[in-house]
Here is the input.
Amino acid sequence: MSQLLVLRLSEPASWMLTDDAGLAIGPVATGTLADAAPLAALHPVVVIAPGTSITLARPELPVRGGRIAQVVPYALEELLAGEVEQFHFAIGPTDEAGRTLVAAVRRDELRGWLDQLGSAGITPRAIVPQSLCLPDNPGKIIAVLDSGQLLVRAPGELPVVLDAEPLTEAFTLAGLEGDDRHVQLQVNGPDWDESREMIEALREVAGSLELQLLPDGSLPLLAPAAARFDALSLLQGEFAPQGGWRSGWRRWRLAAALAGAALVLHVGVRGWELVQLRAEEQRLDAAIEQAAHIALPEVERIVDARAQIGQRLAGAGAADADGLLARLASVGGALQTVPGPRLATLGWRDRVLELQVIAADTTLLGRFAEALGAQGLSTEVRSTTPQADQVLAQVAIARGAPR
Here is the structure.
C-alpha cells in the first residue's frame, strides 16, 4: 500500500500520513515545515493551500483543448482583484453543462508557498485548493468551522471560504439560514469552545443542523479529496513539478534505459509526426474559427479569433466594471446607512446580484433601495411576501436600468 504525506499550509502547519485514498494511517502533527521535512523526504507530498487566497469559477469557455488557457484569463477578469497578468490559472475538468473548473491564485503568492516548502526541503507533488477538498453531499450543505474560517459547500455549487468573524454574519453570507437549508456543520475543538452559543443559535434559523466535532481539526476531513489522482492542482504550466533526482530517481533510470531504444524509433517517425502535427494544427485552427463564428455571429470575418474574443469579453466587462465583491461592498454600505434589513440569501447571475432581504416593512425596504441608488446602483424589488411581523423581499441589484 502506497503512502502519502498530506500537508496543510497554515500557521502552524499540520500534516499526517495517509493511504493512497487519503485515509489517515497516522496521527495529525503540527509545527513548522522543517518539522515535516523528514517525512516529506520519504513520501510523496500533497499540499492543501489556503482557500482564502484562491478564486474558483466555472466559466463557459468558447474553445477546448490546448487553446483553453489563452481564453481563461479573460473569462475570469471581472472576478479578480488585480490585473490578470498577476494571476496563475489552473484548469480542471469540464462538466456536462460545458462549464470548466478554474482556480486562480496570485503568482507571487504561489511562488511564496513553493519557496517556503523548498526552503524546508519539501517538493510537493500537487497543491490543491482547500475549498475543493470539502466533501460533497447532494442532500445537505457541508460546512466546516476551523481556525477562524468557515468553509461551505452547497449541493451543485462551488465551495466558498469566508472569514468566520463575526460568525453570525458569516452564516448569513454563506446562505446557511432558511427553512430549506439543511446543514451538516463540523467544528474543531477551539472554535466550538469559543463560539458554542452562536453555533447552537443556527438551529433556530436553519431547516436542520447536524453538528460534529473535529478533535484533530479539519485535515482528516479534507485529506481524501486532496489525495485523489484527479484533484485540481495549482502546479500546472510554468509551475508544473519538475521532480528532484532523489524523489524521481527510479522513474528517471527507467526512462533513461528506454530512451536509448526509443531514439532509433524516434528518428524514423519524426517526419511522420511533423506531418500529423501540421494537420492537427490546421484542424484546431478550423475548429477555433468555427467556435468564434458561433460566439460572434454578427462578425462576418474572423481574422484573429483570440484577439476578437478577448475584445468582446473585455467589452462585456466594461459594461459592468464592478464585479461581485464591489457589489457586495455597496450592499454593506447600504445596510450601514439603513439599519434594520437583514440578508437571507444571495446569488450572482448575469452580473446581477440577487438578494432575499428581510425587513420590518416595505418602507424600510424602500429606504434600503434608495441607499443603493445613491451609490449608482439600480434596485428592483421583484416580489414581497408578508411573514408575521416582517416582509421577505426578492431584490435584484444591477448597473443601469432595472432588469
User: Anything to note?
Assistant: DSSP finds ten helices and 17 strands in the chain. Residues 245-295 form the longest helix (51 residues). Residues 244-254, 316-320 have pLDDT under 50 and may be disordered.
